[in-house]
Amino acid sequence: MNKETNKGAGLEFRGGWGMAFVPVAIFLFFCVLYFIVFKAFEMHALAMGAFVALMVGAVFVQKGHYERFWDAVYEGVKEAVPIAVLLFVIGIFSSMIKAANISSGFVWLADLLNVNGGLFTAFTFLAICIISTATGSSIGSMFTCFPIFYPAGVLLGSNPAVLAGAIVSAAIFGDNLAPISDTTIISAGTQEYTKKEGLADVGGCVASRLKYSLVAGSISFVLFWIFGGGGAAGTGAAGSGAAGIEAAEILAGNMNRVSLVMLIPVGVMLAAAIKTRNIYKAITVGIVLGTATGLAFGILSFGDIISVVDGTPAGFLTDGIGSMMATVTLVLSVYGIMGVLAGAGALERITNAILGSKMGRTVRGAEIAMMLGISLTTLLFGGVTSASMTTFGKVQNEIGKRVGLHPYRRANLLDGFANAIVLTVPFLSVFVFLGALLTKGYDFIEPLSLTQVSGGMIYCVVLFLVLLFSVITGWGRQYEGPQGQPVSKPDSAAREF
Asked: How far is the C-alpha of 405 from the C-alpha of 494, rounded, in Å?
């Protein structure tokens, strides 16, 4: 086969180019089926849905184009290889931090400061922001922190809905900001330079999005403090008696002040990622320093690093690879679908349609189109941000390149809006479903409804408003300079107003 055929060029479908979206539609069906109907939050299932979608989609190609279809899939998958490798590497660091149980240090700190009510809600938000940034896992942080902070906070007088919203919001904060988050890797890995080779580097993306996260996080901290108190379970006699004792017991059973020392390798890793703009160097330094620190302070044992339990490999080295296997499989499968859309010319058509509309006449309009595009895609995919970013990221890349936006800016808007207000939609967000699910099982408080959890996710709303302000005013907007560097003013080809 010639080079053009290998790239899936001229891929045609029976019924026209619109049939290239058949795999997308089938994949979307599986997302809704597993995450919303079955409430089975497993990435392997979504990856299965994507591969089934590809097999079904291949049936609709024109005669003689079957090989081109799979060549287009291969081309798409090849683009995902750098992301897959990086995800495996960051999985090791994330598993190391989880093994160190850093959350127990924050539980000790909360007990030491004797916080309760609204202040406990705000403290919980801050603590889990740090934990989720350190681990890079939103859902992992929720499963780890809910059983500790939620029942204790309710018994200490926190408003249950706002407290649950604070935990979910904080988990999303880290997913958006952490350089080792899968969404950070995907948002950077989908955005290409136009004036030099390569993709947006993770360190640069994190450094440039830090201001949005800190502003939104600071405002949210104050709001959680103001609205996070007044819970009935922690008021009156119960608050100072049985409820207070029960809360103290929950905290006492989950505290270890020594684990806070693991913030040192986390901080060094973050600083190295931002300074060197090389996530591989940063992760390597973080793993080496974290392992040494954990062993020195007795937080980790050699068995926590590598071991075999009942004939099964264990330890954070193997757990790190295993924890990312499902996500990597999902990314590869979705990139295969994107390869089909590219081979059929569908991505180019979408990009041209957006840029040919009124919104496409200005850079601000293009950014609004990006906001609407990733928000709608995330909504359709049930809040599965890794899948929605992988899907819409290629479109965002083309739109942004044509108006001269820097890859950092494109990646930040992609990740930011995907993790913002759209995740609060009660019946179409995996995060709301999980938040409500994790409030069950306590005899002193009724489980929260989806709308209650959604209403407490203050940070997601604030982040959306901060990013919307950035789009409207141009705050933080950067363009690609002659050598790919970020510059504040566009060249003659870009239309700012």
From this structure: 8
